[in-house]
């Protein structure tokens, strides 16, 4: 027959369903919803942190909770969580998953994976910040593999990546150029450390001058937060200068107004392959919400594991069974 080759890392998501736990844990969505909304009240920064946590989990060994595992004390292998990229993720994101898992375990012990709880929590936080509410398909198992910090760098995007790099990375996960543009809309909320964009402020591509593609007032205000020398490395700056806690399509409008933060954000508007979609999304919030919801479903399908050979259902999320 003429059947297409099957990418085995992508097939298991066929088993994901919205009502996967309908019999075994009917209260699941409600419990996770309770914990995320309580957390959001006193710690809104946990929302963007958890969304990024989900993204980085899915891109490294698939959506399998591998990012949640802590390194063994005294062990020589560093876990994913301890990698340079993931150390930036505020610990509140790990805490909210652990808290939700503990509550779920009390109601339905040994049934629900941490990977599914993370997918649900990411969805809840998108909704809590004003974004779309979409159904989450479930049935992911937690990964049994030992997570390795050394796998993270090459599997997550960086602020100095080119659109070609990003496209290659997204294609390797079964995602598209459109998914890249649409999922980048998550930068509608949250914060970045100065080091990720400081070159654009003072020494763009070795010119010793700022990036000419940046609004001058925006440049001035970013320079105040991020001095060239002697700044505090802990300082973070909102991706969206106007509404950092509101999930909306202002991210794309900002790109058009030269208010993008990372070079990769800006590149989405300067590259002819991605610019038309940025323009469409900047105009049409409903389309952004619809496209974002389906792109998150595809993100949640990446490298899903199932069954006891590769998977487990953890009791606590930071430790293997
Ligand atoms: C496509 C290329 C992407 C690049 C180059 C990129 C890079 C970054 C960088 C450098 C930060 C700042 C981290 C820090 O300094 O603490 C960040 C934050 C963030 N990223 Fe991305 N990212 C990309 C795509 C995505 C995607 C696809 C998502 C989710 C669907 C996402 C969600 C987030 C969120 C929510 C934050 C804010 C985290 C917080 O406030 O704690 N990013 N990203
Ligand atoms: Ca993972």
UniProtKB/TrEMBL annotation:
Belongs to the peroxidase family. Ascorbate peroxidase subfamily. Belongs to the peroxidase family. Classical plant (class III) peroxidase subfamily. Its main location: secreted. Heme b binds at residue 187. Ca(2+) 2 binds at residues 240, 243, 248. Its cofactor is heme b; Ca(2+). InterPro entries: Haem_peroxidase (IPR002016), Haem_peroxidase_sf (IPR010255), Peroxidase_pln (IPR000823), Peroxidases_AS (IPR019794), Peroxidases_heam-ligand_BS (IPR019793), Secretory_peroxidase (IPR033905). GO terms for biological process: hydrogen peroxide catabolic process; response to oxidative stress. SUPFAM superfamilies: Heme-dependent peroxidases. The active site is at 56 (proton acceptor). Keywords: Calcium, Disulfide bond, Heme, Hydrogen peroxide, Iron, Metal-binding, Oxidoreductase, Peroxidase, Secreted, Signal. This is Peroxidase. Pfam families: peroxidase. The keyword Iron applies. The lineage of its organism: Eukaryota, Viridiplantae, Streptophyta, Embryophyta, Tracheophyta. GO terms for cellular component: extracellular region. It comes from Tagetes erecta (African marigold). Its EC number is 1.11.1.7. Ca(2+) 1 binds at residues 57, 60, 62, 64, 66, 80. The record marks 52 as: Transition state stabilizer.
